[in-house]
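Teaching note: in complex prediction, the entire set of molecules is handled at once rather than each chain in isolation. The prompt given to students was simply: 'Predict the structure of this complex.' The entities are:
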Amino acid sequence: MRRWNGWGDEATEFPLRASAVRFLRQRIGKGRPLADADLDQVIESVPRSRLPEHPLVDRSPEIRVRHARGQSLGDWLAMRSGQFGVFPDGVARPGDSDQVRQVLDWALAQGAAVIPYGGGTSVAGHINPPVDDRPVLTLSLGAMDRLLRLEPENRLARFGAGTPGPALEAQLREHGFRLGHYPQSWELSTVGGWVASRSSGQQSLLYGRIEQLFAGARIETPSGSWRLPTIPASSAGPDAREWVLGSEGRLGVITEVDVRISPLPEFEQFYVGFVPDWEQARELARRLAQDRPSLSMARFSNAEETRTQLRLAASPLALSALNRYLSLRGCGKGRCMVTFGASGDAAFCRAAVKRASALVRAHGGVMIGKSLGKKWEHARFRSPYLRHGLWEHGYAVDTLETCVEWSRVDDTVSAMENAIHAHAGEGEKALVFTHLSHLYPQGSSIYTTYVFRCSPDYEQTRRRWWAMKEAASDALVACGGTISHQHGVGRDHRGWLSEEKGTRGLAALRALTAHFDPTGQLNPGCLVAEEDRP
Amino acid sequence: MRRWNGWGDEATEFPLRASAVRFLRQRIGKGRPLADADLDQVIESVPRSRLPEHPLVDRSPEIRVRHARGQSLGDWLAMRSGQFGVFPDGVARPGDSDQVRQVLDWALAQGAAVIPYGGGTSVAGHINPPVDDRPVLTLSLGAMDRLLRLEPENRLARFGAGTPGPALEAQLREHGFRLGHYPQSWELSTVGGWVASRSSGQQSLLYGRIEQLFAGARIETPSGSWRLPTIPASSAGPDAREWVLGSEGRLGVITEVDVRISPLPEFEQFYVGFVPDWEQARELARRLAQDRPSLSMARFSNAEETRTQLRLAASPLALSALNRYLSLRGCGKGRCMVTFGASGDAAFCRAAVKRASALVRAHGGVMIGKSLGKKWEHARFRSPYLRHGLWEHGYAVDTLETCVEWSRVDDTVSAMENAIHAHAGEGEKALVFTHLSHLYPQGSSIYTTYVFRCSPDYEQTRRRWWAMKEAASDALVACGGTISHQHGVGRDHRGWLSEEKGTRGLAALRALTAHFDPTGQLNPGCLVAEEDRP
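The expected output is the structure of the full assembly:
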């Protein structure tokens, strides 16, 4: 059964190694475990539903608890403390687009706010019920998880919007295809959610972002159904698909998604190497991005991330052997880990891997055997579980991400990391580390993780979290970065949107949402709101 | 000096070969030359300007004639007959964004319609003054043709929006870079126009469409300046750049454009081959598109286009030798010409060319030496001049284009070509031929050319042209195609937009334009209008 107050299935656990706990204690002090609330207690705290009965709507307290929050650290603290604040008044689980239409019309007529819900994996408050007088209906697409149409000749597939990553790939695999979109949340997140939040997957170097994979959709808008056809390319005015990408539920409910698929790769492998320092890592990243290297993924960890990842993942013995070897080969304390992969035609991939390995060496680095690459492959969807292991020992973890041009990468990484350190709290420290993982000829994404020990109570912990997140968000936007390269805006990031869109862009976005949703009932407060700072 | 009533410079001519004229006569009958109007006569017909004086606005009749029309066949017939119907009341030629702001504010205050003007190369009526009571100001960006900023590390360049293709590439070449965007209109069209009309270039397989090359912009909107920053990628809501791409002047005047650039290629070469029939050509195209072939361009002519192109370009002697050779090698009367090219790293390109050549052979085809490829390269921007050569002999030529999925390519080509044949007019014939030139894993563009002899007068010629264009447009939209893959919507294609956007998409587009331009003064009638069929 899926956890009601955390990530993934209850049966799946990845506890911390003792050596990892020692490392954390040494770096940021002894953890302070906080007591978890009990599901039964939380269920008792759920108020009476403000929605009337409807055959497609479940108003029972437990299901309302289980759909009240996403996976941001703020959500986590709310769930763990049991202080949810607000719950949806009911959860609908329609089986097809017609039922979505039916329940959407009903909810709009009730004056309810409607929150489209995919996998519930948002880390930006996309699915959190707004606090106001209106009842809230959470509309889960979870029952719409099937392949609806396959066109092998056109490399197209249509899915129910609620299809999660593993079910989507399994259904394609039967026919010899894959989508190739692997966000960190892949186990639980859905194809409709990927579109609505403009997500990006680990192998974006080859398959592109969801923008490149999204071919068409059916959307139930307040004024009726809207089918976006799957035309390969067009110059007939602005592309309406691009209004839907990142619309975060504000224009309507995405019920079916057409995606561009690829044949299963003949070859797929991941590799790990190390370079002596960050300067080399960042230059290597830029070089790989600008040389059309035909890799499917590449990731560049800074020294602190390299150190931390290895401490969390490897036994002390193995680690010390590795470190000795790397030091001998010229990668000392400042060493940075490089992970890359290739997928597709075998001969093509082998040539790409050879070229990339040569570039690692040309940057003073060294390639390690395939074992670490395999390790990365097997563990690549595990990061969200890490929060559980840390939490047990009294530590909290969160991430922040952006995208900037190459010339701004270093300043932005510094500004983000420094802001977090500076706001860790009186007498407290944070462990902060960063990697680059989505590369473009023009620039790179930046993904920063920070671990800190909990305060003695939830409210203080939450306040420190927000202080770090807010300061780092201010810093990255000041560096010219986007407030999100892959997590979206939701309710949490709204305040940092105007720098990117401009006041004119934000006003236009409001005009667009108001056009589709004149009564403001579709995911209100998400993405844009009237009170946004100009 | 640039022609006032046709394409390109007055000094540049490409007359038809005698053998080509014989070919046309045999296929569609003896041409009927129509008499051209005289510039002086047309200038005399220009009415008094309805705009007051302004230091940045030229109201002289000749400049108003020279900015009244684009390059559609309808525009051509208007210019050649001297029946312009309507002229702009003045032409502004601001030197920078601030002057654009100044003249835009002035024109809006005058109640004028404002038509942003790049290279004047529209073939869809983008820049034709609307016929109504308002004065019309044509706002030419032609003086804003400089490189404004170069960021080699970030592979970015900023240009004045009025920079035409050759000036843009020349300024980049000095620094070792290229944009790589080569629409057929490249000699005259501008970077701002490419963005506003969502254009696509010959080497789109490698460099992408303008959507992929467009990084940011400055736009003067009625309510003020709007700077779209150059963030490499973002999930922070819908991408505002995608509202501007294809906006056709309806949101504001694009004054500066940031583009993503590439280093000058180490290697660039084009090749020609032939396959026995269309079935093989189309399958080869699909295979090349879906196998990530790393070519920069590929073009697949059907049998009629192959025949016509060779008749127009080659001497009868050379042609007959070629045909004998091809027939011996299995490419008989149904033979289809395949042109492809590769650009970039030499080793990479050679491998790609080898693979593509092997695929041509695997489809029963044969590769020809490099001479035809070089010929294509040298002649690739010449097609617009062809209209002059044909016109002198009493023939008119026009093109139509769309994009559909692979499974629909054959039906769409047939439907378009048949519709044109069926509407050539009582007792008249059209020469109709087609190629595929922009390939996607999902489908292909379709580009159809039709040549017909003029009627005894202009009005009949215009009516026959529109009957063919209208029937083919109805046909391609009925096949699920876009009304334009690379020419845009303008005023001429508006009637076929609703199938692609849906009524809801069109209504949203209207809401967006109304938001930016509440008084409806920016390029009114272009892209969307209130009277569009639902």
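Point out the following to students. The radius of gyration of chain B is 23 Å. Residues 458-478 of chain B form the longest helix (21 residues).
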